[in-house]
Amino acid sequence: MSLPTRGPWVVTPTSSTVDWMVAGAALAATTDGTAAAVTVGCSSELVAAHVAALVELPAGTGLDALTAVVADLSAKHHRIVVLVDAWVAVPHGGWTVADLATAVHAPVVVVTGTDADATGHTMLFLEALDRRQVPGSVIVVGDGGDFDALPVRLAGRIPADYASFSHVFAAEAARWVDPLNGSRTPVEDHRPVKTAGPEDLQTRVARRAAWTLAISFLLALLLLCLCNGSSYPDLFT
């Protein structure tokens, strides 16, 4: 999957403690054109302030319904930010974030904080995306943290005091985030898949001969027992 300059981007946090909605607002504020947002089970005034259209869907919305909303907005807007508060590989209303990203052909922006578990959680998210061949970016909200071990460059870092920049948020957001810069498309595995092919003629003949011999032996033994039942009183006991 190539990374889009327009279209949907799925945004999700690594934990409930991450102030992640600001990343969605930054993505909306930095688009070249109009932006729209879809929130699932969550909402944000900050996001609403930087989009031309906002659709708020309840938690538990089905994947087909959500995909239809995203498709409708994609026809009218340059970028659609889809905010889902759920783990990448954990079902959310019957679908996962990876399922959603695949369905709407979108990369995933993983938003993380700077606590002690941030790097580990982010690695798990990226690994889950890799398994589904979904491109991913990482945006950090807050100061500090060690993210050198990540397999991607950070696509952005939003300061903890971002609220103090509310009057110039769009301009600052352009300096804070660049999802295309830090995204990576997982390398597809082109190795041939091993499958069980048809047996060659020699193997089939040998297998058939073995079964024929075994059945013939059992029939001969049974016939011998029937003819000499008294001589083998406990053969089958």
Characterization of this structure:
InterPro entries: P-loop_NTPase. Keywords: Membrane, Transmembrane, Transmembrane helix. The chain is of the alpha/beta class and about 240 residues long. The chain contains eight helices and seven strands, in the order βαβαβαβαβαββααα. It has helices spanning about 20-30, 45-50, 65-75, 95-105, 120-130, 170-175, 180, 200-225, and strands spanning about 5-15, 35-40, 55, 80-85, 110, 135-140, 155-160. It has a seven-stranded parallel sheet with strand order 3-2-4-1-5-6-7, sandwiched between helices. Helix 2 (about 45-50) links the parallel strand 2 and strand 3 (about 55). The protein is elongated and about 105 Å long.
Characteristics:
alpha/beta, 8 helices, P-loop_NTPase, transmembrane, transmembrane helix
The 3D shape can be described as elongated
Biggest sheet character:
7 strands, parallel
Our measurement of the CA-to-CA distance between the termini, rounded to an integer number of angstroms, reads 67 Å
Order of helices and strands: EHEHEHEHEHEEHHH
| Portion in beta strands | 15-25%
| Topology, number of strands | 7
Q: Give the proportion of residues in helices.
A: 25-40%
The overall pLDDT, averaged over residues, is 82
Low-confidence stretches: 186-200
**Gyration radius, rounded:** 29 Å
**Strands ordered across the widest β-sheet:** 3-2-4-1-5-6-7
Briefly note the structural class of the backbone: alpha/beta
Provide a count of the helices. Answer: 8
